[in-house]
User: Which sequence fits this backbone?
């Protein structure tokens, strides 16, 4: 079991860093370099990681994508949310995201996206993982829900530095526990703050409720 834990630690490290060498992984995770090398060879054999021969650094490979895609596509949150995400994108013609809260409640991962048809778009968050302490709307909303705020918690971002504006509302499961968030993002100039705090909030609360009801939520 310990060897599996070490292998998973290596995978988690590569998720965070993107790519890394054996020495860097060994030092950062406090693992024996030979153990790290053996782990990487095994993961490479199963196409979970691949080695850049020019730099001798490792990164996640296609096997990791297949595993992640298989999990995401079969997860009830994604399956049941998908039609409503499409409807919301059509209604607003802005990019709609679905963020999932992980089991540790320390991170969120963007697992689905319906992208706007407009030519100017915000950089995609699909597949990205963020700390729950990140200053983005889904993380902010879910953090408030995790620490005990009830209902379909709402929060927003309005970042002059990145030029991104958006808002999110928490989705709850059949036990009433927060499990994700529905999010809309757009360039700052297309989302006035008054719209975010007013009309957009009401829209997202309704969609969050609809998705939660599909997941068995009952107040």
Assistant:
């Amino acid at each position: 079991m310990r060897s599996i834990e070490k292998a998973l630690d290596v995978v988690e490290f590569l998720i965070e860093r993107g790519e890394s060498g054996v020495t860097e992984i060994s030092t950062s995770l406090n693992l024996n370099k030979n153990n790290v090398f053996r782990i990487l060879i095994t993961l490479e054999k199963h196409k979970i990681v691949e080695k850049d021969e020019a730099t001798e650094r490792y990164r996640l490979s296609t096997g990791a994508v297949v595993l992640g895609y298989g999990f995401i596509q079969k997860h009830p949150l994604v399956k049941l949310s998908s039609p409503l995400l499409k409807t919301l994108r059509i209604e607003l013609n802005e990019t709609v995201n679905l963020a999932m809260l992980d089991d540790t409640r320390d991170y969120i991962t963007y697992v689905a996206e319906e992208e706007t048809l407009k030519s100017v778009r915000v950089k995609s968050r699909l597949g990205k993982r963020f700390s729950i302490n990140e200053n983005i709307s889904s993380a902010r909303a879910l953090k408030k829900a995790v620490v005990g705020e009830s209902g379909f918690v709402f929060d927003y971002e309005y970042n002059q530095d990145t030029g991104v504006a958006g808002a999110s509302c928490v989705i709850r499961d059949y036990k009433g526990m927060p499990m994700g968030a529905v999010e809309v993002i757009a360039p700052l100039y297309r989302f006035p703050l008054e719209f975010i705090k007013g009309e957009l909030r009401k829209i997202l609360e309704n969609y969050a409720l609809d998705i939660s009801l599909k997941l068995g939520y009952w107040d």
About this structure: Strands lie at 19-20, 49-52, 57-60, 95-101, 107-114, 129-131, 154-159, 164-172, 178-187.
